[in-house]
Specification:
Blueprint (H helix, E strand, L loop, with lengths): L1 H37 L7 H14 L1 H5 L2 H17 L3
Helix pairs in contact: 1-2
Length: 87
């Protein structure tokens, strides 16, 4: 029963880390798009450019790699449990 409680609190912590990392990553990408537009050479509406860039970011690899925040600790936890209980 203690393992379930530990797992619950670990996943709560990982969820907090995931959301904070996601927010930070999105803000860095948005800032990069704003600087790219402000540097010049891009025609059109600034907000449309940023919206299109953020939509592309949401479908990209960097957004999907954030799921490793959950996957890697789960695998590590499983490996530790497996080797501790190995006879």
């Amino acid at each position: 029963m203690g393992w379930l409680r530990l797992g619950f609190f670990v996943y709560v912590g990982l969820t907090i880390v995931y959301f904070l990392t996601s927010i930070y990553s999105r803000s860095v990408r948005r800032e990069k798009l704003e600087k790219e537009f402000d540097a010049g050479g891009i025609e059109g509406d600034r907000s449309a450019f940023i919206t299109a860039g953020m939509a592309q970011y949401d479908k990209g690899l960097k957004k999907k790699l954030l799921w490793l925040i959950y996957i890697l600790p789960t695998i590590a936890f499983g490996v530790v449990i497996y080797f501790v209980n190995w006879d």
